[in-house]
Amino acid sequence: MDINNPSYGMEEDAPNDAGGDKEKMISIVRASGNEQLSVAEKTLLWERIAADITQPPVKIWWQSWWKMAAAITLLLSAGLGWWQWQRTQEPLPALVAFANDQSYTRGDTTVTRMILGNQQLLNIRNSHAAIAYQAKGTQVRIDSQEIKQELEAGRQVFNTLLVPYGNVASLQLEDGTRVWLNAGSRLVYPAGFGQQRREVFLEGEAYFEVATDAHRPFSVYANDMKVAVLGTAFNISAYREDASSQVVLASGSVQLEAFRGPGKKSTPVQLSPGNRALFTGHNGNMTVDNVDVTGFISWKDGLMVAEHTSLYEILKKLSRYYNQPITTDTRSGNETFSGNLDLQKTLNDVLDIIAATTSLKYEKQGNTIIFKTK
């Protein structure tokens, strides 16, 4: 129904009780569960409908009522649909909600930062920080320094580890699980896990060796996907700027599923050792293939292993690892590289190896290194 069209009306002898009908219809719409419209908006909508009802009569009054009924039905349906949608949405885990509420900037520092649950900020100047939790999460060792963290019984406290570009870090959680965080990554985790589950939130890339605990499954939330395990080793790459996230399983078994977004209703995918799952968050697509796991996990040991890997992918990883913008010109983007790159060496040493084994050269333009055809 076009509520702005004055050609619709009622017969002259039809009852004109707009005031009573108005209150009835507002009550019906309010009860429909459509909380997208405020009471004031619903009142205004009815007043526009009522204005049409009181227009000069025309002979086809039944068409007006039919269209008005259709409009009301559509409004009620929208309200019911919104109410049903709200009921089907599972609440975010407290950990994920906490991580989503955090505000931070990755590029404003060159030091690794730890934010404790009481908002205490610790700067870690070692570019290869080693962190370990002990005593049920109340004691933290950062390299050679020990820090105590007060925890209240029954209250979960979330800590955050921020690893900037140019740095890496290793972390042992209170349950014995070991995590290696690559450059440009964020991990949010409880200082001490509860009795029923173990959950962490990842943005960036990390390699996990999960301590076995059959009574407390371990889950990683990253880019709208959830990876659930009991005890296994796997790598997750889930950078915000990448088109897709990937999980590579080294040992054990994991189950991968969407926990929100378009892929939420799809069947969970079970991975076996050597499987790689590619997950595209914006459409929920998930594909699985077989890969050489070594090339995806060697970074935690300071080594990049490439086998006919596109230069674009290699330079993207090196750019993060060394915190240095690196790119290629249009013609060089299709080049591939095979070999081992020692990430303990300087960036220039690594780039020299790439240039020597390809048909490319590199030069610095401003703050950016560009690979070009020789």
UniProtKB/TrEMBL annotation:
Disordered: annotated segments: 1-21
All residue ranges annotated as the FecR protein domain in the record: 166-255
Xref: Pfam families: FecR (PF04773), FecR_C (PF16344)
Signal peptide coordinates: none
Domain Protein FecR C-terminal: 305-370
GO MF annotations, alphabetized: sigma factor antagonist activity
InterPro entries: FecR, FecR_C, Ferrdict_sens_TM
Protein name, UniProt field: DUF4974 domain-containing protein
Record organism: Chitinophaga fulva
